[in-house]
Specification:
Blueprint: E1 6-7, E2 12-16, E3 19-23, H1 25-38, H2 49-61, H3 70-77, H4 79-82, E4 84-85, E5 88-89, H5 90-109, E6 114-118, E7 123-127, E8 134-136
Parallel strand pairs: 1-3
Antiparallel strand pairs: 2-3, 4-5, 6-7, 7-8
Helix pairs in contact: 1-2, 1-5
Length: 151
């Protein structure tokens, strides 16, 4: 059994690419919602409880058995079109972004990375705590904006 690389609770326990992540429900919901916004599946994080529930089920289980919201129904009805965009899996990328955020947070907590403001991009990044160059350059993510749920 892998030791937890990130832990905020025990509502969701997931292993991904050799790492173990343990989340409380609120943390997992926030990370899943942020991931869906980041890839453009939804336009904002202003989702209702049922929409969040459908996204959480999709990320945790890889599918939505019984949609509870318009978003869930949209995903189930259009799964053939939405599940893969240019060969990229929706579920994989949602999980990857959830886990990437947890991994980065864990590295910050351990003092291995610092959060830094990057002046030229106007965004936050991660830097070596010793003041060296930026260590983590976040790779671009595929976009689901053309298929975005518009409710």
């Amino acid at each position: 059994m892998l030791a937890a690389n990130y832990r905020s609770g025990d509502d969701f326990v997931v292993e991904f690419l050799g790492h173990r992540f343990e989340f409380n429900a609120a943390d997992f919901e926030q990370r899943v919602t942020a991931a869906a916004v980041r890839i453009g599946l939804v336009g904002s994080n202003d989702l209702d409880e049922n929409e969040v529930g459908d996204l959480v089920e999709l990320v945790a289980d890889g599918r939505i058995d019984e949609p509870r919201s318009g978003l869930g129904l949209y995903l189930v009805r259009h799964w053939e079109r939405i599940s893969l965009v240019e060969g990229e899996s929706l579920v994989y990328w949602l999980r990857k972004l959830v886990f990437r955020g947890a991994w980065l947070d864990h590295r910050v907590k351990e003092g291995l990375l610092d959060v830094a403001w990057i002046e030229n991009t106007g965004d936050f990044g991660y830097a070596d705590p010793e003041g060296e160059r930026t260590l983590v350059e976040l790779m671009p993510v595929p976009s689901w904006r053309e298929l975005q749920y518009r409710g």
